[in-house]
Amino acid sequence: MLNKVIANALDAVIGINGKSEIIFWNSQAEVTFGWSRNDVINRMSVVDIIPQRYRADHLEGMRNYLATGEGKIILKRLELSGLHQNGHEFPLELTIIPIDAEQPLFYAFVRDITDRVSRHQELLDVIRERDFFISVASHELKTPLTSLKLRIQLLDMLLKEPGGIQDQEEEIHKSVSVCSRQVDKLASMCNDLLDLAKIQSRKMEISFRTFKLRSLLVDILERMEGEVKSAAITVTLNISEVLEVRWDMARIEQVFVNLISNVLKYAPGKTLEIKCDTAEEFVKLEFVDSGPGITEENQKRLFNPFSRCASKYSTGLGLGLFICKGIIEQHRGKISVQSRVNEGTKFILELPRVLDSSMRGKPLR
């Protein structure tokens, strides 16, 4: 009866003798390690199913136990790695029980803990992401707040001086302007954090309307004219004047502003071409700049939250492209990047040309 229970146990059960030869191998061991009973029993050693780095320790432990009757890992629950038939390592939980018999005999009870380790790693990643978010958010929010505080203190000093308003009018206007910009920066960060929460909770509201694509881009570029000139960026717009789309205009504008702003920030003095290819049902937009490009390593995490390219221009929460991705996906579209260092960068947006509320968030076919 006991042998039948062990043979059908949900854990892998492996019997070995004093020479480390495998003499018992239940059905779950076949599932866990990939070898059949016929492959293993009296043909393989336990060292064949553990990674190379553990083998010397196992053999030394076996010799010590046979000589002294004591073992460091006997009757203890351990976590280490096993070796599957296909060559990959996997995490396992192991307990070894010695059996009193004429010849040395041991039973190892083994459980594949891949899922548990994976869940634990996911939890660690969430905690790490949370801690990173707190660090980045507190730093980035503190910067404009510090500037605001200093300017308010300066204003307070100026206003307390005799005739301060008349004599310091220019400085007062300058301080008010700085305060206004910092408030806008704080508001933008708060909006990004709200959008992050909406995307992660799948609660971002999308409202579709029909508009001309080129007109929207022209309007954006006109409003950003001062920033474009300051960055010495040459912008070329190759989009039909008659092309109409049905998207959420405000959210798509948010995407366009982010992509253009990134060029102004990371590629000053370079060029930006915005062009469009259309099929009957789909629109393909490309934002192509001649800037410094993005490394392959940075491209891998570019659309992750709180991701920023290592650069002297790196500021903000690092949420822009993550939010762009969320908005485009809500439009049943996709966003991708192509880039090489010193050869520029291309962001590609692919979306259905016309959308309605019933299509929101569904992936492209």
Task: Describe the model.
This protein is α+β, with helices and mostly antiparallel strands and 365 residues long. The protein has 3 domains: 2-112, PAS domain (Beta-Lactamase, 2-Layer Sandwich); 117-200, Orthogonal Bundle (Helix Hairpins); 209-359, Histidine kinase-like ATPase, C-terminal domain (Heat Shock Protein 90), CATH 3.30.565.10. Helix content is 46%, strand content 21%. The chain has 12 helices and 12 strands. A 5-stranded antiparallel beta sheet has the order 2-1-5-4-3. The protein is elongated. The two termini are 56 Å apart. The mean pLDDT is 86.
Strand order of the largest sheet: 2-1-5-4-3
CATH classification class of the largest domain: Alpha Beta
Q: How many whole angstroms does the radius of gyration measure?
A: 32 Å
Main sheet specs: 5 strands, antiparallel
Distance between the termini: 56 Å
Helix content: 40-55%
Keywords:
12 helices, Heat Shock Protein 90, 12 strands, 5-stranded antiparallel β-sheet, Helix Hairpins, Beta-Lactamase, 365 residues, alpha+beta, 5-stranded mixed β-sheet, 3 domains
List the helices and strands and how they pair.
Blueprint: H1 2-7, E1 12-17, E2 22-25, H2 27-33, H3 37-40, H4 52-68, E3 78-83, E4 89-99, E5 105-112, H5 114-160, H6 164-167, H7 169-200, E6 209-212, H8 213-223, H9 225-230, E7 234-238, E8 244-247, H10 249-266, E9 271-278, E10 282-289, H11 296-300, H12 320-330, E11 334-339, E12 345-352
Parallel strand pairs: 7-9
Antiparallel strand pairs: 1-2, 1-5, 3-4, 4-5, 6-8, 9-10, 10-12, 11-12
Helix pairs in contact: 5-7, 7-12, 10-12
